[in-house]
Amino acid sequence: MAGKIQLMSASFCGWMESAESNLSKVRDELDLLEDQERRLSGIWESGAEQQWEAGFQKELLELRQSVANMADLLPKITEAAEALFQVEKELIGEAEKL
């Protein structure tokens, strides 16, 4: 029975680059959203606006924290991907000896 080795580190590295790019886009969009909220704040002044703004700021803070958490994980994931790449290289070396 012949086995098949499927190498994943190259596609994983591409995924990591995409994830980093997407996090940058999310940060940019959050900045834009916050800027638009500031513009709206000057136009709409009422008790409802204050309540809405407080909720918006809370949600925005939670979103920013989530994005920061994801960004903190990326180096750890990159480290794991590099370890996976080394394992794959070793497996290829072992397979070539057979």
Describe this structure in words.
With 98 residues, the protein is mainly alpha-helical. The chain is built from two helices and no strands. The chain has helices at residues 9-43, 47-97. The longest helix has 51 residues, at 47-97. The radius of gyration is 23 Å and the shape is rod-shaped. The protein starts with 8 loop residues before the first helix and ends with a helix.
Brief characterization of the structure:
The protein is built from two helices and no strands.
Along the chain, the helix and strand elements come as: HH
Mean pLDDT: 83
The poorly predicted ranges are none
Computed Rg: 23 Å
Largest sheet: none
Instruction: Give the overall silhouette.
Output: rod-shaped
Instruction: Count up the helices.
Output: 2
Q: Into which percent range does the helicity of residues fall?
A: over 70%
Q: Given the helix and strand composition, which structural class is it? A: mainly alpha
Number of strands: 0
| Amino- and carboxy-terminal Cα gap | 15 Å
Beta-strand content estimate: under 5%
Q: Layout of helices and strands, plus pairs?
A:
Elements: H1 9-43, H2 47-97
Helix pairs in contact: 1-2
Task: List the defining traits of the structure above.
single chain, 98 residues, 88% helix, 2 helices, mainly alpha
